[in-house]
Amino acid sequence: MKKMTAGAITILLLLSVGVLFFFNKNSGASTTSESEDAKRVELYNGEVVEYSDQDLKKKLTDIQYEVTQEDGTEKAFDNDYWDNKEEGIYVDILSGDPLFSSTDKYKSGTGWPSFTKPILEGNITTKDDPGIFGMRTEVRSKQGDNHLGHVFEDGPEPTGLRYCMNSAAMEFIPKQEMKKRGYREFLYLFEEEG
Question: Is the entire prediction scored with pTM above 0.70?
Answer without folding.
Answer: yes
